[in-house]
């Protein structure tokens, strides 16, 4: 493993960080550069790494022993686990510079920053050295010419940016899981966060919104036009869409629900009727439902569908027709492990388990938690007074409701994480 003299930072994003023992610490999310009073390029003082539980920490550049396309390795010493906070004279290179509109000298050709390189001097100091800038394309050109130029040949790299695009920042973020992307969005200024969120496609934005704190969900949704907001709500799971709409005023709820397709809006309207903190308010109205004459092979094919979460795919609920909630009479459920043990041609009607009483829509959350823990269940059916399946509560729903309300918020304290002293001159 080696450390090249020049490293392009957009290519470093997402690379794993390892300690001297070979244990992964986290992944690179950005680089921190210190602005100088002179015209010299900013000095790179460290990297920002994201650890488990969405915690971002600062890694001093002096602690890094090697960098390559696959890994960043730290030297020995204590790792400071204090949450990273940017100082007034610092900039986050990827967050603040990608997609920035700049001009090239000489000639003043307009372009957009697509990457920034840091370079190590003979004395071991890392500085931002080169900038990859794509020329603004003309009307007939599909893509402008790409220039890799010295830092001092580009104007507009620091200071307040004009309106920016999002393509290059999205390219850096595209491989993140929705929860990690939601975490990254919380680090952006509000205007930049809303720009990036709006540039995501409807399905991706729906997944990310489900991972954000409620106040961020509301602000991003409010920044969209109402038709787009309704499209995104249609892509969300009904329970997540209902949770988000519950944060809005009733008139705004009605406007967005009226803009949604009836088939997508009706389950959400039904969920909004239930009392908060009950099975009805936290359940999903779209569990896996099959008739008793469906085969094991059909059930296995259904739970393999990519859009299903692991908790939802862990069991199949068996009912009489119709197969959408509220269904016909509820018969029982079959766990996926049982499906794996049975011949593919066997019918679900002969495998159902119904020895545990289903939940009712009004069952309170503490009772749901107790019963799921007692029977080691990943999901439980919810039936109405007519024995029709109206939904299912899964373990992720219970966890989400059991954690503190601000658990998704980046500013919330993380219990059980040891922190060292704040960054000082030694860390810089």
TrEMBL record:
GO terms for cellular component: membrane. Residues 283-351, 352-410 form the CBS domain. PROSITE patterns: CBS (PS51371). GO terms for molecular function: magnesium ion transmembrane transporter activity. This is Magnesium transporter. Keywords: CBS domain. Residues 402-428 are annotated as: Disordered. The keyword Nucleotide-binding does not apply. Pfam families: CBS, MgtE_N, SH3_actinomycetes.
